[in-house]
Specification:
- The protein is mainly α and 498 residues long.
- The chain folds into three domains: 44 residues, no CATH class; 209 residues, no CATH class; 208 residues, no CATH class.
- It has 18 helices and three strands.
- Strands 1-3-2 form a three-stranded antiparallel beta sheet, with no helix packed on it.
- Helix 4 packs antiparallel against helix 12.
- It comes from Cannabis sativa (Hemp).
- Its main location: membrane.
- Pfam families: MatE.
- InterPro entries: MATE_euk, MATE_fam.
Length: 498
Amino acid sequence: MEGISSSISNRNIVAALPRDLSGTAGSSSDGGEERGNVIIVNITSTSSGEKWWKKVLEVEEAKQQVLFSLPLILTNGFYYLIPLISVMFASHLGPLQLAGATLANSWATVTGYAFLIGLSGALETLCGQGFGANLYKMMGIHLQASCITSFLFSILISFVWFNTEPILVFLGQDLEIAETAGIYTKFLIPSIFAFGYIQNILRFLQTQSVVRPAVLLSAIPLVFHIGITYCLVHLTPLGFKGAPIATSITLWISFFMLAAYVLLARQFNLTWQGFSTESFSYILTNLKLSLPSAAMVCLEYWAFEILVFLAGLMPNSKSTTSLIAICVNTETIAYNVTYGLSASASTRVSNELGGGHPEQAKSAMVVSLKLSVLLATIVVMALGFGHNFWAGLFTDNSAIIKSFASMTPLLAISIMLDSLQGVLSGVARGCGWQRMVVYVNLITFYLVGVTVGSLLAFKMKLYVKGLWIGLICGLACQAATLVLITMCTNWHMIAAVV
């Protein structure tokens, strides 16, 4: 059929026409050339491949979302690498430093960084819809309110981090490792304030579709970070302490660069009109969205940490913990790859709803979902062909590499589901459904995922596979619930009340 279609492209088709009653021939209304009782129509046919793509995907919308999401993926990856590089430098100082720095970084992520990422999610709704509705001044007000909120919670997080050692000892961690992790976390405390401000500014830029400059403004600090960390760890008496100090310094450098960009760039003259005390009156508005948004993120992060903890309770816990850690890291990296589409969905939906275009918002959501499936498929195929190589980057243990190979089919399913729910969660943030999704995550991840996983792992003796099957059940329920919510949504009603 493709050959037939191609052969008629750009051809003149000749067809007989009956004369009108007067016997005269006029010009054709459809743009063809009429001669007597014959009309010659030029038909330009697109290839069957183009037709197929147009039916499956809105190419222009998809192109815009891909160009939008790629810089976000890079920016997110660069900020992910900053604390990780510090851990790598600290880890080379010895086994105790390796264990302490790794534990401290995980602790800082689940108790601080993840929470602040979630808090900034309020701006995806408030600034996104404000930009779509041309309420430009309010975007700067909401940014300031969100920064105030982040500052207040950063103070609370600082108290938790300062007492990391006794908390970890209470949770059953080795005394030496807990002490080392406690030291590392204390010197990370300055970073938490900068990190919160950075996330707010990134959301402020994202909702205005300003994403490319953020790549440069995160890449430059990352390059400096490598040099700063090396100098503090190896060329000063700080040693181990130099690694977390370097993270704090780099994040503050990044914040000042982002802040200077917003203050000095002319394109933000409308959305940033200076500091205003009016922002204090919008703190409560911010909290109504930021707290549920933070809960959304933390519930998912904590669920994965629980899996690692449960793996430590199994026979041969060193191997099972290593295996589940590789799986969790793989899932996290795969999610970070598709994260850009989640942010794209949030921005596009919130902008269109704010502009009073419900059908465009719905269309943008559908395109994001299709792209997420496509991208997840590519990741899954790469994992399927290269799982042994990938596992070898984490360990030299042949038994663990072999076990990871048997986990690959389950990982493929969870990555696909996680990609879908990530985009749907982005849509939820764009619509302002954070509170609803908190309950969805709580039920699906814990009541379903952790419960089913624990039963399969310990009662059915499936161990790590059982835990991951439970996670898949939770992700499937989460994705199905979010799909049902979006299908039942009255988009016109949402656009009317924005």
